[in-house]
User: What shape does this take?
Amino acid sequence: MLDGMTTVRLETGLDDEGRRLDRVLRRACAELPISAIHRLLRKGFVSVDGKRAGQAERVRSGQVIEILGAELPCAADRKKSRGGSSIGDGVEVLYEGQGLLVLNKPPGITTQEELGALALEYLTGKTSPSLSFRPGPLHRLDKGTSGIIVFGSSLAGAKRFSALMRGGLLRKTYIALLEGSLIGERLWQDSLAYSASMQKSRVNTAPGATAKRARTRVFPLELHGGFTLAAMEIATGRRHQIRVQSAARGFPLYGDAKYGGRERAPFFLHACRLDFPEGCPFPRSISAPLPPAFQKKLLQLCFTRADQLRMNAGQILLNK
Assistant: This one.
C-alpha cells in the first residue's frame, strides 16, 4: 500500500455471502458515489484477503476487504459510532426472531428516518456483521398511522417476508375511526394512482401504468354519534389505500383533512394485526394494542368497545 494514504478495513458477514464486490461496497460505503467506488476498483485500490479484486468478484463470509484512499464513511464505522440502546420514544417490540423485528409504531413519527434510526440502535450488536445488508423496514406506514411495522434484521428474514408479501399470503388488519355511519360489511375494489407532486392518492377509473389495484374488506365494529369504528383488512398495500378508499365513499378518517375529513386533527388509523400462513417460521399472528390517543378518543366519543380494544386490539377482531 502507498504511504500517506488511509486504509479502511472491512470484514464480510453471512449476509454478504455470494454477492458481487461492487454491490457490497455500494451498500457499505453508501455516502460515496458509484463512480468513486468503480474508480477505486479500477485503480486497484481494493483488495480482498490481500489480493487485488475486480468489481464482479463474489465475496465470501469472513473475508477482509481493504480500501486504500481518503477517509471513507463506511458501514462498519457508522455502526461503531452508535451506542446499543433499547427502543425508545414509546416504541414497543412485538416480536423478534427469524430475521425479523416487529415494532408497534406510535403515530406522528416517520417509518424510514425516525423509527429506522431507533431500530438500528436497538439491533446494534444483535445481528450478524454485514457490509451489504442493513436492517430496514419491509413495508410502509404513513407518519400519522400507528401499529405493526416489520423490519428485516437479516437478509434471509427480509427475503422470506418480502416473498410472502409478493405472494399475497399475509393478512394485514387495521382499525380505523371513520366519519359517518357505515352499515354492513363491504368489499372495496379500486384502481389507485399516487401523485408525488401532490403527495396524495386518488381513485382512478382503470388500472394502468400509474394506477394500481387496491382491495380492502371493511367490517364495521360499532356505530355511535355519526362515527364508525371499523376493522379494515387489506389484500394490497397501496399508498394511502385505506384513507383514499374510505374518503371516496363518503367515510373519511376522522381528522383526515387531506382526504375530506371535517376536522384538521390527527387521524386515527392503527395497524393492529398481522397474520402469517401456516408453515412459516414466524408466529401465526402478531397484534398491537391501540395507542393511548386512539383509546382516549374512543372513550370521548362513548364507544363501548374502547375498554376491550385497550387491552388487545387484534384479539377483538377474532369476533368481528
